[in-house]
TrEMBL record:
Coiled-coil regions listed: none
NADPH-dependent FMN reductase-like domain residues: 1-142
Family: Belongs to the azoreductase type 2 family.
Organism: Paenibacillus germinis
Protein name in the entry: NADPH-dependent oxidoreductase
Length: 184
């Protein structure tokens, strides 16, 4: 199955991006083909409804990966009770054809205990783009973020955090697989 992930931070060492990399690792171990688009490494132009950015290489790659995806993961830091501006900008470039009938897992990292506001905001955007929100979502906050800081290996992730991430990712992959089979 093809999974496209968007890591929506413009910070080099974002814990939300490291969490997305770990999710990619887990999905790859299960035999899935995963494309991770890191908006820090591949910034996009500002969205314009005038389509002034047609032909922009990074934008075209994003759109192609999203069209090919059978499942989608959106990862963001929580800034001021919302998703990052770079993720919102990326989503503004996309349309219903990129999300229609695809399962989407929302993932967030927050300085506080949990990132409910950004997760809720992502799920609202996904609904408006006709995607199917995974019933589970994934948020790390406070001390849990230490598991995804630069230099921490996957073997060093706290067992409780690892168990929760694996459960949520497994649930997402199972649902995406079931839906993909039914739509073929």
């Amino acid at each position: 199955m093809k999974i496209t992930m968007i890591a929506g931070s413009n910070q080099r060492a974002a814990t939300s991006t490291r969490l997305a990399e770990y999710i990619k690792h887990l999905a790859t171990l299960e035999g899935h083909q995963v494309t991770l688009i890191d908006l820090y490494q591949t910034p996009l132009p500002f969205y314009s409804p005038d389509d002034a950015n047609a032909g922009h290489e990074a934008l075209e790659k994003l759109k192609e990966a999203m069209l090919e995806a059978e499942g989608i993961v959106l990862a963001t830091p929580e800034y001021h009770s919302g998703i990052s501006g770079v993720l919102k900008n990326a989503l503004d470039h996309l349309g219903q054809d990129h999300f229609n009938n695809k399962v989407v897992l929302s993932v967030s990292s927050a300085g506080g205990a949990i990132a409910v506001s950004s997760l809720t905001q992502m799920q609202t955007i996904v609904r408006n783009l006709h995607g199917i929100n995974c019933p589970d979502w994934l948020s790390i906050g406070g001390d849990q973020r230490k598991n995804f800081q630069t230099g921490v290996t996957y073997q060093d992730i706290h067992p409780d955090v690892e168990k929760r991430v694996r459960r949520v990712v497994g649930s997402f992959l199972d649902l995406a697989k079931q839906l993909t089979v039914k739509l073929r």
